[in-house]
Amino acid sequence: MTKQEIIQKVADMLKAQKPDSTFSKGLIENCIDSYTQVVREEIAKSGNLQISQFGTFKVVERKERQGRNPQTGAPITIAASKAVKFNPAKALKESL
Q1: Nearest CA-CA partner of 51 in 39, 67, 33, 61
Q2: pLDDT higher than threshold 90 for residue 81
Q3: Is the entire prediction scored with pTM above 0.70?
Q4: Choosing a second label site near 55 at 20 to 30 A (CA), which of 12, 41, 83, 93?
Q5: CA pair distance 67, 85, nearest whole angstrom
Q6: What was the pLDDT predicted at 24?
Q7: 64-88 as b/e, with b when 16 or more CB fall inside 10 Å?
Q8: What pLDDT was estimated at residue 34?
C-alpha cells in the first residue's frame, strides 16, 4: 500500500464517520507525515516505541559477522549495525 493509498483510505473512513465534515487530503497527509516523524524520533531517542493494540518497535544491535560476496564467493565482513524490529500486539495478531 502506498502513502497516497493510505491517505485516500483515511479520507474515506473519515467521510464515512463524519459525512458533514470536510477533511482535505493535504491535512490528512500532514497528519500522517507528523505521525511518522514522531515515531521516527521516539525510536531514535529511546530505542523503543509501544503503540497500544498495534505493537512494539524496538532497536536491536546486529553483531559483526562473516558473509560471502555473491558474485565472487569471496568472504567479506559485514559490519555491525542497528535494525528496527516489530513485534505485533495480541490484538493485531488476533485480527489476522
Answers
A1: 39
A2: yes
A3: yes
A4: 12
A5: 22
A6: 87
A7: eeeeeeeeeeeeeeeeeeeeeeeee
A8: 95
- Span 20-79, pLDDT tens digits: 878 888 999 999 999 999 999 999 999 999 999 999 999 999 999 999 999 999 999 999
> Are 72 and 66 in contact, with CB atoms under 8 Å apart?
no
Secondary structure of 40-76 in HEC code, one letter for each residue? HHHHHHHCEEEECCCEEEEEEEECCEEEECCCCCCEE
> Please, which residues have CB within 8 angstroms of residue 80's CB and are 6 or more apart in sequence?
61, 62, 63, 64
Give the distance, in angstroms, between the CA of residue 91 and the centroid of all CA atoms in the same chain.
17
Q: Are 29 and 7 in contact (CB under 8 A)?
A: yes
Sheet of 48-51, strands arranged across: 48-51, 55-62, 81-88
Q: What pLDDT score was predicted for residue 82?
A: 94
Compute the Cα dihedral for 29, 34, 39, 45 and give only its sign. Answer: positive
